[in-house]
Amino acid sequence: MKSNLQAYRGSLLHFLADPAFSDQSHDWFEDGLLIVEDGKVNAVGDYAALHASLPPGTVVHDYSGKLLMPGFIDTHIHYPQTDMIASPSEGLLPWLETYTFPSERQFEDSTHAANVANFFLDELLRCGTTTAMVYCTVHPQSVDAFFTASEQRGLRMVAGKVMMDRNCPDFLRDTAETGARDTEALIQRWHKRGRSLYAITPRFAPTSTEQQLHLAGELARAYPDTFIQTHVSENEAECSWVRELFPTSRSYIDVYDSYGMMRPRAMYGHCIWLNERDRERMAETRSAAAICPTSNLFLGSGLFDFERADQAGVLLSLATDVGGGTSFSMLQTMNEAYKVARLKGSYLPALRMFYLATLGAARSMQLEGTIGNFSTGAEADFIVIDPQATPLLQRRTSRSGSLEELLFALALLGDDRAIAATYANGRQVHVRETT
Ligand SMILES: [Zn+2]
Predict the structure, then answer these.
(1) Domain(s) of CATH 3.20.20.140: residues in the chain
(2) Which of 45, 58, 282, 301 could potentially form a cystine with 50 if both were Cys, beta carbons 3.0 to 4.6 Å apart?
(3) According to the UniProt entry, where is the signal peptide (predicted)?
(4) Model pLDDT, residue 91
């Protein structure tokens, strides 16, 4: 049988380990070649060494002067909040009331949900994001609309129906029983169908009764290879609310722990106001943190502590948290992550930030080998980054003396304009329009 071999030439970067803990964290081929076969990575290496191995007649797509790297992974984002990004508000709780809940109400309508899902996915691909962990709304049809759209594009996506049975408007409320029943039906319909993966998604502890959290924990045990996603310790007002609602819990994240929701493939959004024991529990249980810097700065929630998280060995990744976040771009998310680290007295090298947005996220999701780098057999989700995308980027990157300087300029100055093309499963799913 004739295989479908494609080759891509360009400067090639991918990660093998966390640069914070390893001296051999990445492969960098200035003139590199990526060979893709039937949607999977077949080989990567120096162009000079590899191109002779290509069967005669293989087309080599020439991206010389540009960077080829694995697609970005955004580990926390709300697709129903696409239309309300950049809404002004004084803090998280009033912002939820004024903008979020009314926007989410519209997802009762499947046509509206499909329309937003399509725009949302196109926007992710324009920004070079090929995988995301996505919150839908309380309506099961919002999940069907999302996975239908992501399946059409051949994307590896994780998503789930929000479970929320108290402290929210009636029109967005499920019950402990319907929330669990709908979630189980969606797991059976979508989890591991093609590239789709399901996440059990209680919105956050204050909007779930103990019975709902109990049933979510039971589902997490019954379906151990599903994901779990929720919010934790985002801002101080929310943390004191959780203390009132769950007076016997040791801490906010302990609420989830007590219902069996700390385990591999559990992704906790924000993780700002954690204590040492919380971080230890995250590391022990292989639960992961989704760091959302643009959202945390926008809502004034707080500053993530990279140093303490690293000391405890917590699995880390970066996330936009749109619509609390202010950009779909993982490059802009790195830009803000860098500044958050500075304000906490730590330093985030660009190499680390690109790791966190690719292999670090894949590891956090227990998907290393499937996505996140160019290991042989990995799914060929990759992007083409153009260091000359804007006049300023062109000027600055032409003076970069090292890979670190090049990546740093891309993270600080880049956005969707820097993404020349996006590929998913070896197929081109976005190409930047040139003017
Ligand atoms: Zn969020």
Answers:
(1) 72-348
(2) 45
(3) none
(4) 75
